[in-house]
Amino acid sequence: MTATPSEQIGRFQTDKTEWDNIANTQEFKDLMATKRDFIVPAFVLFLVYYFLLPILVGYAPKFMATRVIGVVNIAYLFALSQFFMAWTIAWLYVKAANDFDKLAKDIIEKAETRASNNKGGR
Amino acid sequence: MSTPLVMFLIFIAITLGITYWASKRSAGSAAYFAASRRVTGWQNGIAVAGDYMSAASFLGIAGIIAFQGYDGFMFSVGWLVAYLTVLLVVAEPLRNAGRYTMADVLAYRLKPRPVRAMAAVSTLTVSTFYMIAQMVGAGALVALLLKDSGISYHTAVIGVGILMIVYVLFGGMLATTWVQIIKAILLMGGTILLSILVLGHFHFSFAGFFDAIGHVTYHEKGQEVVKDFLTPGLRYKPPYGALDLISLGLALIFGTAGLPHILVRFYTVPDARTARSSVVWAMVLIGSFYIMTTFLGFGAATIVGRDYIATHGGTNMSAPLLAQALAGNIFFAFISAIAFATILAVVAGLTISASTSFAHDFWTNVIHRGVERKPGEEVLVARISAFVVGAVAITIAIVLGPTANVAFLVALAFAVAASANLPVIVLSIFWRRFNTTGAVAGLTVGLLASIGLILISPSLMAVDPPTVTGAARHLIQAKAIFPLENPGILSIPLGLVGAFLGTLLSHEPTSEHKFNELLVRSNTGLGAERAGAH
To answer: ipTM of this model?
Structure first.
């Protein structure tokens, strides 16, 4: 199914062979591998860390109610730590994503150069 | 004129000024639907936070924590952590491959008409349910806050409805974005002030504050009770409390990244990099806000007290009553005006995402097969549908009345987003074999499962005592068949099963044919929509 006309305006266009070519370049495979190596572990880590909270609160409420400082208990401290976990992963992601951007920029430039060469050659 | 009314009117005047300014900059589809994609990272970050921090969070969360302590704080945690899904999985691919709606990404490699039609149904369902919850809340709140000015529930609902229609109709995405930004700044300012005042009440001693949370006194069934509000279990009790908590977590974590009015915000920025930075900005604001719900909620519990709140407007009034207790009527008026601004901005955001989906997905791409017959038609249709959406929301809110039990509609919106929207977005970007049948099946099953399970849940099914009357009664007077308030734990797997079975039972070579194109586009930004000129 081709893109509908309203979707084509102002966009980089090329044929299927070229898209497949780009997808099979080493640069693109590197980009995908670099992204996967960060995103998959980060995503799994945050899911495990987050769902520990409702699971522990739900199934081990006595343990979670253990007081640590004054009335402040494990449940509250663990909940509070979730905010810092989220901010830390976001910060690490932004740092890692600078590398994704560099790799993506190379791929875009090469693809655009090839496309304009092809047009010039015709 | 009462002080709250004066403050409401000031806010309305400012936002109407913005709408007038924006109306001159909203010609053409990209300008109207996506603010010409010229919104900067921090601006969009604040707007995302504004879209997300609805009345449900500002008033609702303060009330839940004030009444149910720690269990209410669990909502705060989920609402922030959910943004990691937005950041890591959807924001950038969506910006790279789409134009105006989430369906743009689905339509890339799948058959556009069926997936867009189904995605539009899902978007309109989520937006309308969410909006009705906000409108009923707004009407009840405004009527309560302005009761000295003689403004009724009906007047309040109609007023909110007309204002949101004006913002969206004339100002498009640009006005909606700026209304959202101003409101988010006001909301943060008000929350910081309240938090400082709460701490000040305890002579800036955290030890004193937490000590008070450990001994909250109130009356239950005529008996005085003293409870530690930091201990879990005041809301989520056995036998199903634990499962309900996990189910809530699932709906929040996977639903946020599927909420249409949040997703459309990523089309208003110039590129994926800015989309990323706007999520980070949003996470800073949202996280700070929800940490401060500690002061709002527990402050209301300790300083105002459950007994007083219950007899002075109920849980939703916790934050305004806290302001009144700490700094008198002017501050009460200020916090009330912020609550009003919050509702207004959120309903405007919902209206624009609903009308964009109807105009772009349904009108242009499903009915007219992707051809805009004359320039400006898509925007015109969006304006008309904004008007219709607004009128429908006003009517339903008035029919339901101020006492209607509508809190479940927000849970439903998150469940549909998590069970229907997010799975098909992710599968269409990452699964080569995925196809149209899978997308339509996933959307349909996810949507129906969420609605069906809510219908037979304790939110709508319960046996009320005869003292509960009218709209406050449960819809079905029988014991709930599904024991959880949040359907996510069952509806998300059902939506996924629908998507997988639909895909595996059908064969669609064209979908796999275009997989590489979508993969390259969404991951590199090659050929992504650029920012427009003024």
So the answer is: 0.92
